[in-house]
């Protein structure tokens, strides 16, 4: 043990002596019980110091309104078009929501009312702007020899397929930044992700709960409510469901664009993706082999389950879920303790793999 390690040990012992947190002391005691078994990892750490870097790498800082470089023509162009492109993409998402949740299907195919047909035409015209925008970006990149980061270019291409993705584009040369209303250029990290989750949580709870009266009316009181309102109730209900879809799609696209672990986010938030994808599935003409009524009820059933689960997720984010269950604190404590135990077991399995690897390295060096 060198002098630096001795000083670190002395500092750690002094910190433990001052510590009065029983939870922290219990963790230290548990780790010390495994000291003998973990000895090979300690020896391996002399050759691989990265094993001693145990501090969290999570960046929880909130860095917004960052200055964007205007050095290149491409950066200047993006600074000028970031806000308009976001607003246009939001409009495209609104049109998508209206079309997906208000079309009708019969044996002849998919039908749109005259208003939605006009919206579809507007959608097509605006799509040309995305094509022109991409061509200009490519021209500026090649003309002034400015390399576009892959993390920014791939979503740019995907926005041609689904224009609303234009809301979630990264900076062309600094892909760790994204443009958002109010926040402007912001650093894409866990801090921004958690901040936006908290901002979305309460509104999304309200949006999720909107599905309950919609489904109750559709399944039980449709004729009574339509007679009372004296209007085309199906159009009203479809617009409400379109608004719900719009809210979930907006939240999902923004949050998944900010996180750097997109696959992990989608895997963890598969309910969000299910809510967004279901209307697209019902829009595909190949599904005409199913009866329309059966397909509609199936989709609504999934929406109900998905939206209720989404509401619960929002409650957890705002910690409101814990306050609702204060009458049974033992239940919540046991549930969270179980998660801690699972994480500890996973950590121990990883450490055991490191021990086996360290022994293999040692045997290899002795040959």
UniProtKB/TrEMBL annotation:
It is found in: Membrane. Its main location: membrane. GO terms for biological process: monoatomic ion transmembrane transport. The chain crosses the membrane at residues 80-100, 120-140, 202-222, 242-258, 270-290. GO terms for cellular component: membrane. Keywords: Ion channel, Ion transport, Membrane, Transmembrane, Transmembrane helix, Transport. The keyword Ion transport applies. InterPro entries: Volt_channel_dom_sf. It is a multi-pass membrane protein. This is Voltage-gated potassium channel.
